[in-house]
Design brief:
Layout: H1 2-38, E1 41-48, E2 54-65, E3 71-76, E4 79-84, E5 87-92
Length: 95
Amino acid sequence: MRKKILATVLGTTICLGSMTGCTAGFKRGVVDMKSNWNGGMNRVITVYTADGKKIAEYKGKIDIDTNDGGYVKFDYKGKRYIYYNCFVESIADID
């Protein structure tokens, strides 16, 4: 009897733990879909050179394109911006 209770508690704990991870991933997916449907998210994007000097800052509804090509591309106020070989900080308001 004691083994059954222990197995049930252990199984429930594992199940809840795995559901918590799925829930966080689900929430991120919902935020991504909202961003795609609404043309971006409210963000603050700051662009820096390799030595840390600030090049530019953008605030507003911005849609960022993800890639593996070593550049950052985004649309802002009807214009497309592409930055190569720099550091970009993006802070999004997801509320």
